[in-house]
């Protein structure tokens, strides 16, 4: 088996090729919106959500259908959320992945529309998956829309995050924010892969538990990195959480306890995969990578 770094590079290339195929070319009229969409979509992301989707599908079945399209839809939703998060009305960031943010290049109006367009395109791609039965298409659309939405989903988490700025940091508020804001889409990534693989109830529950723990570990590490790493290392403005009075894991628990919590969540993610045996090796490796990353 190839090293994880080679596996990730291969997965990223696979996803990039599919995103290129599924996203209108820059020359498509109106050209400006397609340039803006593709600017952020191909800005050099790690593709962690698509990779999780593809590797969850592979852990469940050798014959998964539609996993690549599902993976691309996840990346479109993630990218739309970043474009909108960076806007002046929200986090007001000038850089993302080491490049000027979408609104800095195309203006605020076009950035809003680029995010809207990626959101819309994500669901069109799911509806058009060839060879997948209608029941599983509906399940994928429900999974992604729920994880992206207001009821314990990404947008709901963003709302709580905004409304809680400058409030005393509490464990309860922190859990509400990050279970929804970051965790929901990471959990959906592995669940959508499992749906494409035709997972039975036991495997679906196991992969869901893995997603819960990996999602929480990811956010804890993100909060730690915002404190400890430079803007150059992160590819975005460091230290903004504290400057904006955000409720984060270090703010609630301190850095050392936060590190311990991330390691605990990683261990729980590993335990959740016992049902899959060697088929889940890549998911084990990704859990470790998430906890030990530096950007």
Describe the structure.
Strands 1-2 form a two-stranded antiparallel ribbon. It has 295 residues and is an all-alpha fold. The longest helix is centred in the last third of the chain and has 28 residues, at 201-228. The mean pLDDT is 92. It is globular, with a radius of gyration of 18 Å. It contains 16 helices and two strands. The protein has helices spanning 4-22, 31-41, 48-60, 67-85, 102-106, 108-127, 134-148, 154-163, 171-181, 183-196, 201-228, 231-234, 240-243, 249-253, 255-272, 281-292; strands at residues 95-96, 99-100. It has a single domain (4-292), classed as Farnesyl Diphosphate Synthase. 45% of the residues are buried. Helix 3 packs antiparallel against helix 16 (281-292).
